[in-house]
């Protein structure tokens, strides 16, 4: 077990912002929640998958709603513990550890605050090692696990627990319910044993996130070879460098969609187009897909190497596009249908970053 | 002919200009900022008004670093009670949790989160807990000079904030001022709350600034309307500035850019402002600086103000030129405003960029050129090629596209800017460029803005945008803009993910010249 204190949160938060690939909510608010939770309830224990009993029951917990609502209606904290307790009481079993559903965006840090308040460890594992817009897009789904039973709670004490026949239906039901509960809710789902998690989860994603954040911080401090170390650590590459010359936003089905076009600094005939659905999802260079989901597209400010969220995209920004290979655990079973290009409605084939 | 006065108090200099109704500069002065800034303001005023008929002066505008310095130096700040109307929401992040501890200790008194606030759709999170508000007032009595009130979604629905403010007025009387977050900031509860706390804490400083300015004007026989410039380059009336000092924190760079734009007569251009220590490059779009998207920290506190998007480097007239074994390097150290005594050309002992500039002929009429004749040609060439390269890089970084723009060079060190910069159509050096910031204050307009979530699904996008535009225009007119000349200066739409009904965050700004 590893103890997490406030000073460890900087790298984790930065890594989470990068893994959010432009979406996933503002990890800064989540970081403040964790700092306050540490102050109120003490330090947090993070356990690896092989440090807990195989029979122990684990559940994921996350904030679910709209990022713009969450920056106004900051979570209470109680909705998360309420959601976990509601799930526990529905199942009639004690939940012995908490796990993030996505390590990317604000849901990376929220489970840490919940774990210390509940007095249970947080598992160093998750179901995405990035952020995705829908709750069924996980390695858990790919491993055949159900997101049900699941629970949803608000800050006022309203809570529901329910089961669905598919994880896709779980997504629809939970999203619809959240609209009635104020769009800044806690969800607890994917209850599983540690033995199941060993098979289905992405291992070590918190540590990966924290180390990634450390490498990015080194880049920001302009330490020598920092970019090389970041790329070696992730197996990623710099896919493009240029200036945003066009930005087209639209909301269609509740997801903020859009297209951003970047022009190469040196060669104006080279452009990259990135398709957005909350996150940066698909990169197309000169008509050819070059980064496809589930691989990650990260956009950084060219000068400061600060990750840029899709909400703050602006015409004229100078950016660097980083392509990172997804967690290997996302490539099993029918992964192309669940997290590949077609899951987002893109009629393109998956392109491996390894070439 | 009527006149306006513009004054800008910066860290180094206090500048003043008088501008006539055609926008021409009729008097200008630049002097060192004094330990009590009002001494400098009075002197500058006396100098410029000596050159015109006082009776024709109608308005006076001040841009000042007073409030920013108060926060940076933790000086003259008032103690503030902080109440958030949001329970049971938001308990996960208490007010002030991410503040620097010394600033928190210096200004924040009692803190509470009580029942109240609204949801994104305008319904209540909880009814306002008036009893709790009254209990908070009791805790604050005799402890604080002001109270900061915030609530979720108050930029759209501010009834709870107003009711709480009325309760504080009843319980504590007029001596305890109340700052309401919906009047201070945009969406983002924590950042808006932070700005509101800073605002409440600065109310004393604001009163001193406004009263001091008024006294300086009266002392010079000027009984005129006075205004303070705010971050976006538009004006707050003296009355508003007393209540919203936090909105004036970052007006310096904006005034300089707006002044440069107007002096050069170019609404779309790059601007480089070269001072004694550093150079800032920004870009003007339609006469206003492009704003930064990054979160702005004030004294270590995160706010959601918009500030001009600027790139700064250590390049100024006072930058020290090092000629050592590793070749010629420049800065980042600088003799700053002491360039007038420290530079070789002024009889000092430090080789600065001003010396190099004089030696090369870029700068004339400064010091004794004979004193820099001994600087080797290679040193001059190396230092200036570094300067030229830095300015080229900054100009290129700031541009939004390959489209070439003019570059307006302003500030005391702008002689360093070469006449030709790659990627720039021309380098424009307007008259009076050394007082561009005071000029920017003098020509500033009144403005109004709105930042709210609209649901296009209910009434259609156009109807929502129309409402937003007219709300912004009305706000500008309330701030003193001429109703016939108000125009929309920016519209920003950000669709909200996961919110039904095509919800969209709409930010609109309107501005117009002051009604005369």
Automatic annotation (TrEMBL), chain A:
Where on the tree of life does the source sit, at the highest rank? Bacteria
Domain S-Me-THD-like C-terminal as annotated: residue spans: 166-352
Domain (S-Me-THD N-terminal) spans 7-163
The name this protein carries in UniProt is DUF917 domain-containing protein
- State the species of origin: Nostocoides japonicum T1-X7
């Amino acid at each position: 077990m590893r103890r997490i204190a406030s000073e460890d949160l900087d790298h984790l938060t930065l890594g989470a912002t990068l893994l959010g690939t432009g979406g996933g909510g503002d990890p800064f608010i989540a970081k403040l929640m964790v700092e306050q939770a540490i102050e109120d309830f003490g330090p947090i224990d993070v356990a690896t998958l092989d440090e807990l009993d195989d029979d122990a029951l684990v559940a994921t917990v996350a904030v679910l709603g709209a990022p713009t609502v969450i920056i106004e209606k900051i979570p209470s904290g109680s909705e998360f513990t309420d959601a976990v307790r509601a799930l526990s009481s529905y199942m009639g079993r004690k939940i012995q550890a908490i796990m993030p559903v996505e390590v990317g965006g604000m849901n990376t840090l929220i489970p840490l605050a919940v774990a210390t308040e509940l007095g249970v460890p947080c598992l160093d594992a998750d179901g995405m090692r990035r952020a995705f817009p829908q709750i069924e897009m996980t390695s858990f789904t790919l491993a055949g696990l159900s997101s049900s039973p699941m629970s949803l709670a608000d800050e006022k004490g309203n809570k529901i627990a329910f089961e669905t026949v598919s994880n896709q239906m779980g997504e629809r039901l939970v999203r619809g319910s959240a609209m009635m509960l104020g769009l800044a809710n806690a969800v607890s789902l994917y209850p599983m044993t540690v033995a199941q998690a060993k098979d289905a989860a992405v291992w070590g994603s918190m540590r990966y996130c924290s180390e990634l954040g450390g490498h990015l911080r080194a880049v920001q401090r302009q330490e020598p070879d920092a970019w090389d170390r970041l790329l070696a650590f992730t197996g990623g590459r710099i896919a493009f460098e240029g200036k945003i010359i066009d930005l087209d936003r639209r909301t269609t089905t509740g997801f903020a969609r859009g297209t951003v076009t970047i022009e190469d600094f040196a060669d104006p005939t080279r452009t990259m187009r990135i398709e957005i659905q909350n996150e940066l999802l698909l990169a197309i260079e000169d008509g050819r897909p070059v980064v496809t989901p589930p691989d990650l597209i990260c956009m950084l400010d060219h000068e400061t190497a600060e990750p840029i969220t899709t909400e703050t995209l602006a015409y004229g920004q100078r950016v660097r596009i980083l392509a990172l290979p997804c967690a290997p655990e996302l490539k099993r079973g029918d992964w192309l249908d669940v997290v590949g290009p077609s899951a987002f409605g893109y009629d393109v084939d998956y392109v491996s970053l390894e070439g | 002919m009527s006149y306006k006065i513009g004054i800008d108090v910066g860290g180094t200099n206090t500048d003043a200009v008088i501008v006539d109704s055609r926008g021409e500069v009729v008097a200008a002065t630049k002097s060192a900022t004094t330990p009590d800034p009002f001494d400098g303001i009075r002197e500058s005023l006396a100098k410029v008004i000596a050159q015109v008929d006082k009776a024709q002066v109608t308005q006076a505008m001040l841009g000042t670093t007073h409030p920013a310095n108060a926060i940076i130096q933790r000086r003259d700040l008032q103690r503030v009670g902080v109440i958030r109307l949001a329970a049971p929401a938001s308990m996960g992040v208490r007010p002030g949790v991410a503040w620097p501890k010394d600033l928190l200790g210096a200004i924040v008194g009692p803190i509470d989160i009580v029942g109240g606030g609204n949801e994104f759709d305008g319904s209540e999170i909880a009814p306002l807990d008036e009893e709790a508000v009254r209990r908070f007032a009791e805790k604050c009595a005799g402890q604080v000079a002001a109270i900061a009130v915030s609530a979720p979604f108050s930029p759209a629905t501010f009834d709870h904030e107003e009711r709480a403010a009325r309760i504080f007025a009843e319980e504590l009387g007029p001596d305890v001022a109340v700052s309401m977050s919906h009047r201070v900031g945009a969406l983002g509860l924590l950042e808006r709350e932070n700005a509101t706390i800073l605002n409440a804490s600065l109310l004393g400083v604001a009163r001193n600034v406004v009263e001091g300015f008024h006294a300086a004007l009266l002392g010079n026989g000027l009984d005129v309307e006075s205004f303070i410039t705010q971050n976006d380059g538009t004006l707050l009336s003296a009355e508003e500035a007393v209540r919203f000092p936090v909105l004036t924190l970052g007006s310096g760079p904006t005034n300089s850019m707006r002044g440069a734009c107007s002096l050069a007569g170019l609404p779309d251009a790059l601007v480089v402002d070269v001072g004694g220590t550093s150079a800032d490059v920004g870009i003007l779009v339609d006469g206003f600086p492009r704003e930064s998207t990054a979160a702005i920290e004030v004294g270590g506190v995160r706010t959601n103000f918009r500030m001009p998007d600027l790139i700064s480097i250590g390049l100024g007239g006072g930058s020290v030129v090092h000629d050592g074994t590793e070749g010629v390097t420049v800065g980042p150290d600088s003799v700053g405003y002491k360039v007038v005594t420290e530079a070789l050309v002024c009889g000092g002992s430090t080789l600065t960029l001003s010396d190099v500039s004089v030696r090369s002929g870029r700068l004339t009429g400064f010091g004794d050129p004979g004193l820099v004749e001994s600087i080797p040609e290679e040193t001059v060439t190396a230092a200036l090629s570094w300067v030229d390269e830095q300015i080229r890089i900054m100009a290129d970084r700031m541009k939004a596209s390959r489209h070439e723009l003019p570059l307006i060079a302003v500030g005391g060190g702008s002689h360093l800017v070469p006449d030709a910069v790659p990627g720039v159509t021309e380098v424009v050096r307007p008259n009076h460029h050394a007082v561009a910031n005071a000029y920017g204050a003098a020509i500033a307009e009144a403005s109004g803005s709105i930042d709210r979530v609209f649901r296009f699904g209910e009434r259609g996008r156009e109807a929502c945008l129309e409402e937003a535009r007219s709300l912004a225009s009305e706000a500008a007119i309330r701030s003193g803009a001429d109703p016939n000349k108000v125009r929309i200066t920016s519209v920003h739409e950000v669709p909200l993910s996961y919110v039904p009904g095509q919800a969209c965050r709409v930010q609109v700004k309107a501005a117009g010249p002051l009604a005369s």
